[in-house]
Amino acid sequence: MKKIMFYICTSCLLVQTVQAQFIVEKNDGTSINELKDQSGFSQNGDAEQWAYGDEYAAENDLANIAYVRRAFPSVPFDSHLYYGRSLLTEQEQKAYDHLLYTLLTYQPEQGSTAKRIPVDFASAGIEVTYEQLLTIGKYMQADEPRLLMVQSIVPRGHATDMVAPPAGNVGTVYYEARFYAVSMAYSIQANNMFKVETAATRILDKLQPDMDDAQKFRVLHDEFIKLVSYGGMSTGNSGTIEGAFIPNQNGYHAIVCQGYAKGLQYLCQRAGIPVIYVTGTASYSEPPVDHAWNMVQIGGQWYHVDPTNDDPPTGATIPVRYEDFLQSDADFLHDHKPGVSTQGEQVSYPEFPQVAEESYPLEQTEYPRQ
Q1: Fold of 213-365
Q2: What's the rounded Cα separation, in Å, for the pair 266 and 274?
Q3: The pLDDT value given to residue 30
Q4: Which is nearest to 175 in space by CA: 243, 100, 257?
Q5: CA-to-CA distance for 149 and 119, rounded, in angstroms?
Q6: By three-state DSSP, how is residue 101 classified?
Q7: How far is CA 43 from the centre of its chain?
Q8: CB contact set of 270 (below 8 Å; sequence gap of 6+)
Q9: Are 294 and 355 in contact (CB under 8 A)?
Q10: Domain boundaries, the chain
Q11: pTM: predicted TM-score of the whole model, two decimal places
């Protein structure tokens, strides 16, 4: 029986389900999404390989299948990968965790006509106010790029009426679904996350076990920039991981700065590298413009990265540049201002971690090192 390599994080092993989603990639480059139990694919004891189960082998032409891997489950990442969460109180973190888990794992009942996703804090024993939820939601939107089912992170006090929750601690609140229908939002999210996962995993597969975080980040940064291009302003997905990892009708992964920052953020989170989605302003020329980029933690220290600016213009002789790659404040902040929009409004987070005094040496990110 043919063996298939599959790298799995420890958090995946904690999620036990009767069925799981698998990505089956064919030799022609196409992929299909399979929902299978152990009769479809069997797991070796070392948890690093998947083999075709007898049922799947009998139904498919295995010669035309390149590999099979389990899709990453739609559950929260480890908490240390959510910077905004670290800015909250202990009680707010409990509300954050409950809200995030609900939004990522929610499945509507068959035939549901609901337009909002309910989140019950009272039954979970969590005390949180409407005002606190506004802050929690703002941080969560910056922390988590996979909130594809949600149209608005502003909680409502009713399943249909446009009213805010009552004063004091909330009970059950409701979040507006995309497309104003939970069932449609769920269906599109499931389909799109499979496509996102397929494209992202092709990049993640390039990481080697003996790489350190600097080398891993260099691979993620370079391969992601080679995948995408600037554009897509007329589409609604140009600032999301959907635009970053799903090609448009012309076959391009066309995105704007938010899509660059969220796409790189997702890859880092999948690789276990602490990363922050930053919004603020950039002043490459006057006047300044609203912009998004990242901060990345390497070796316990934080650095600035602007993946949009590291993508050369169309027709350039180099595929990737490193003008804003793992930089210090001195090298980066002369034309970037985090946390404030061009209108003077506070965006992203109210504060950011201290950055390393020196930019990270580019040659130290090479693999193997020369």
Answers
A1: C8orf32 fold (3.10.620)
A2: 10
A3: 82
A4: 100
A5: 14
A6: helix
A7: 26
A8: 72, 200, 204
A9: no
A10: 3-70, 79-184, 213-365
A11: 0.87
